[in-house]
Write a structure and sequence with these properties.
heterodimer, A: about 80 residues, mainly alpha, 4 helices, B: FAD/NAD(P)-binding domain, 3 domains, seven-stranded mixed sheet, five-stranded parallel sheet, about 20% strand
């Protein structure tokens, strides 16, 4: 997966969580939590969805790596490079 | 329709013991993740404490008293659109005690107005209090108690303490001496948008959840009381139920945390360090309830959906737990609660200690139960004068009743105190493949807490199953 593919994947998962999520003004280097009003349960959903779709195991201590869209991509890129 | 146990296969990916809202939600999430799930319930009805019973033409809800708005998002994400669509607001919450009487929608803006106008609290104090509790989370300082929190913001104002604490004590059994974060998290959830309920009643909700689980391929068996969880070499192998062994690499217990450790798994499978922590768990208090059914064609005026009433001079956590407490809530179920079922029902709830009731002789128990009903009717007549003539069903439940139907240690109706959460969360680190979901730690209780905890635990289980 390219960095853009990973970005799309994350946004697609968030869209499933909240169909009203608005990505128009989303800044990729800023926390997703504040911009999209995501709570800790929503982040858990992202983790579970990544495991379901791509068999990724993300340990709890790495959850902070999913804070912004950019940090998600940086963290997931090596794991998804052969997908 | 749930099946009898003889229809169950000999092996599953995961077995869930108990069908409280936590167990049901874990089962749902794990089936969604593609696992083969068996759900076992000892009772003939699913739901755990999210339950109801029928007498004559009446339907009484046990724990449908009001939950926070967060339930809408949670049901939308983890259950179905139909379930979400049945959530409606309870707009008229009433407080009546010697210190104040008022009506509220129980949300931040209305509470702010009340605190300012009726209780003469400065706007800056109110705003600071709300932002403090809203910012509380699980990782905060856990040494501050709710009493200290109130004393900091509203020193000496026992009336304000009562307004802020009384409803939460009924919601999760917490007291002024529990960690302030357990108060802040739950109170803020309610203050978000007010109090909500499930139109159609608990029976409809559980029916919808059951159908959804069946659609997702979960095998559900009722009247199936698990005797023990089989652990071999520090790892779960399955369960024993009615003399039959069913194997699975993962078992999720939605039994009480203490029942899970001592009765189902057994002390000998845990380390000494773990048992020290488990032995320190304080199970929360239980409840008493009085169920009041009105005659066909009888009606009462709309005096509010949820009435927090007391004749005790001030709020006192131990007074609320006393066997002869003068404090109780009335949940009033008007015909609008169950469209199509044209009856009025009232459920009075009190907090109560198991030991107080369990230590009575059978004769004294019957006498106390009758006295509980009598006291409740006296209180109820203050709000609905002459209601006695309209009643055609009266029945009481005590902590012993809760114990009988849920099997929970000492009939707890609010799970455990705060320390129970860490033990519940670390169970699978102690015995591979063994998980617990259920009311623990005060914050993971109530309908919303139980469902969300079910999702959290399902994530752990899914991660584990995929790693073995």
């Amino acid at each position: 997966m390219t960095r853009d593919d990973i970005k799309d994947l994350i946004l697609e998962i968030i869209k499933d969580i909240d169909e009203d999520a608005n990505f128009a003004t989303l800044q990729s280097d800023q926390p997703l939590r504040d911009q999209l009003d995501l709570d800790s349960m929503d982040f858990l959903d992202i983790v579970m969805e990544l495991r379901k779709r791509h068999k990724l195991q993300i340990p709890e201590e790495d959850y902070p790596q999913l804070a912004s869209l950019d940090s998600c991509v940086n963290y997931l890129e090596p794991m998804l490079k052969n997908v | 329709m749930p099946f009898s146990l003889d229809k169950a296969a000999d092996h599953y990916d995961v077995i869930v013991i108990g069908s409280g809202l936590g167990g049901l939600t874990t089962a749902k999430r794990l089936s969604y993740c593609g696992h083969k799930v068996l759900l076992l319930e000892f009772h003939h009805q699913l739901g755990g404490l999210a339950t109801w019973f029928k007498r004559k033409d009446h339907i009484f809800d046990i724990s449908l008293h009001g939950f926070p708005y967060g339930m809408v998002k949670t049901c939308k994400k983890y259950w179905t659109k139909e379930i979400t669509g049945s959530i409606v607001q309870l707009k008229n919450i009433v407080f009546d005690n010697p210190q104040f009487s008022l009506q509220t929608t129980f949300d931040r803006s209305d509470f702010t107005a009340l605190l300012k106008k009726k209780f003469k609290i400065a706007q800056t104090t109110i705003d600071h209090f709300f932002s403090t509790v809203a910012g509380m989370n699980f990782y905060d300082d856990q040494t501050m108690t709710t009493r200290e929190l109130f004393d900091e913001f509203f020193p000496g104002r026992t009336d304000v303490h009562r307004l802020l604490m009384e409803p939460i004590t009924y919601a999760n059994g917490s007291t002024l001496d529990d960690p302030a974060i357990t108060y802040g998290i739950v109170f803020s959830n309610f203050m978000n948008k007010g109090v909500f309920t499930f139109e159609g009643g608990t029976d409809k909700l559980i029916q919808m959840m059951t159908e959804d689980l069946e659609k997702n391929g979960v095998m559900i068996c009722t009247n199936a009381k698990v005797d023990r969880i089989i652990v071999e070499k520090g790892k779960v192998r399955g369960i024993e139920v009615n003399g039959r062994v069913i194997t699975a690499p993962a078992v999720v217990s939605n039994s009480g945390i203490t029942n899970t450790i001592y009765d189902l798994a057994g002390r000998d499978v845990f380390s000494q360090d773990f048992l020290v922590k488990a032995d320190a768990i304080r199970v929360n208090n239980s409840s008493c309830q009085v169920y009041i059914g009105l005659k066909k064609d009888a009606a009462i005026e709309d005096k509010g959906d949820l009435l927090f009433t007391s004749t005790a001079p001030v709020f006192d956590s131990s007074e609320l737990l006393d066997m002869h407490t003068r404090s109780k809530t009335f949940s009033v179920y008007y015909p609008k609660t169950r469209p199509g079922h044209d009856r009025y029902a009232i459920v009075a709830s009190m907090n109560s200690r198991f030991d107080d009731w369990n230590s009575l002789t059978p004769a004294a128990y019957a006498t106390e139960k009758q006295a509980l009903i009598e006291r409740t009717l006296v209180d109820l007549n203050r709000y609905f004068p002459g209601v006695n003539d309209k009643i055609d069903w009266l029945e009481a439940a005590t902590p012993k009743t809760f114990n009988r139907y849920t099997l929970h240690s000492r009939g707890t109706s609010f799970g455990t105190k705060f320390e129970g959460l860490a033990v519940s969360r670390s169970l699978f680190k102690e015995v591979s493949g063994l998980f617990h979901v259920g009311s623990v730690g005060i914050i993971m209780s109530g309908w919303l807490g139980a469902i969300n905890y079910g999702v959290i635990v399902a994530n752990d289980v899914d991660g584990y199953i995929r790693s073995v």
